[in-house]
Amino acid sequence: MTFKLYYWDGIPGRxxxxxxxxxxxxxxxxxxxxxxxxxxxxxxxxxxxxGATPPFAPPFLIxxxxxxSHVANILFYLGPRLGLAPEEEGLRHVANGLQLTxxxxxxxxxxxxxxxxxxxxxxxxxxxxxKRAANFLKERLPKYxxxxxxxxxxxxxxxxxxxxxxxxxxxxxxFQLVEGLRYAFPNAMRANEEHVPALLAMxxxxxxxxxxxxxxxxxxxxAFNESCVFRHYPELDRQS
Length: 240
What we know:
Pfam family, one: GST_C_3
Radius of gyration: 18 Å
Domain GST C-terminal: 92-236
CATH topology of the largest domain: Glutathione S-transferase Yfyf (Class Pi), Chain A, domain 2
Organism: Sinorhizobium fredii (strain USDA 257)
Strand content: 5-15%
Domain GST N-terminal: 1-86
Distance between the termini: 47 Å
Protein name: Putative glutathione S-transferase
CATH class of the largest domain: Mainly Alpha
């Protein structure tokens, strides 16, 4: 059965975390909003999911009659079906916890450029964004990166993967997190990367996986841009 992924067209955003899992697994899926009339269909489903609980916002995934929203929830569902989650139930919950921590980090990254309100343009909240970004780069970014480094180095199955002994959706999401941070805060990342060698090694190993490498070189891989969660505003990266 074909999975249907719904997310805003033109930006990788949060939908990219799901795309990477689908691409790595070679899954049959449709990126609906990139099809003619897809965005309208997505907005219609957000109002009326045909008997299912409508999702509050994209990304969401439809598999048959199931409508599943939120990145971590989608990946918790897809992981076992795509062979991208540990077989042990306990470790699946560990993976979900790590993915939720990534979700928290992404939310804080978003708030560096939109600290007051999502309905306001960045230019309407630049002073607040500058303060928020400075705090994030000084305190939160090293804490998040250090945590994921520790998760890798303390994994009983080895430091190549974040949970268990095989590739999981968490590894793919950490790859995307590093990619996004390098785009949004290149100076800050250069200052922090020497402290997270295991995280970077895992990132590099994901990048050369055959299906991921092919995906990254394809037109399906959308470029980061200043409409995305990860945005590069040089003035916000100066504090590093």
